[in-house]
Amino acid sequence: MKTILLPTDFSQNSINAIKYAAKLFEHLECEFYIMNVQKASSFISDDMMTVSSSATIYNTLVDAAQKSISNIILQMEKKNKNDLHTYHSIVDYDNFIDSINQTCENSNVDLIVMGTKGASGLSKVLFGSNTVRVIQRCKTPVLAIPDNCIFKSLDTIAFTSSFSTYYTIENLKLLKDLAL
């Protein structure tokens, strides 16, 4: 069974990456962890005015993210009925990279699949900053899905390396499975 981490910020780009992963692995038994990471700075002061006195900022952010992930899971289960796939929800209130690394470690994640979109106005930028940070700072392999990419069978795979890691056959098993 493959364990796939799907970080989302609920953008169309990240939802597309989730759909792409489900299609890519449609014939394999997979556990998909759909993850959203919240940070305090994303909660602007106007929103703080609407929080009831009994609620905390943390609960408000996490509850909203949890509902959004639940909606994604419902849509995936409805449109892509697949008994081989199980979906889980993770909402964290932490540093983005730390949260991804902890989840990969705790859940034995085989692959991170995430959408990527270069910064606006920079058409030559291949990857967005979050994707680059995940590729650079996470030990788990990353499959970056470009904006508006529609799934079709794979015919080209790029393998990037800083040459600071010694790769064994076991390290490259998932890549080999994808290539076959």
Describe what is shown at a glance.
With about 180 residues, this protein is α/β, with parallel strands linked by helices. It has six helices and five strands.
DSSP E strands, number: 5
The main sheet orders its strands as 3-2-1-4-5
Roughly what fraction of the amino acids lie in strands?
A: 15-25%
Supply Rg: 17 Å
Helix amount: 25-40%
Q: How many H/I helical runs?
A: 6
H/E element sequence: EHEHHEHEHEH
* Backbone structural class: alpha/beta
pLDDT averaged residue by residue? 83
* Oligomer class: single chain
Low-confidence parts, pLDDT < 50 over ≥5 residues? 120-125
Give the distance, in angstroms, between the N- and C-terminal Cα atoms.
17 Å
Using the alpha-carbon principal axes, give the shape.
globular
Task: Tell me about the largest β-sheet.
Answer: 5 strands, parallel
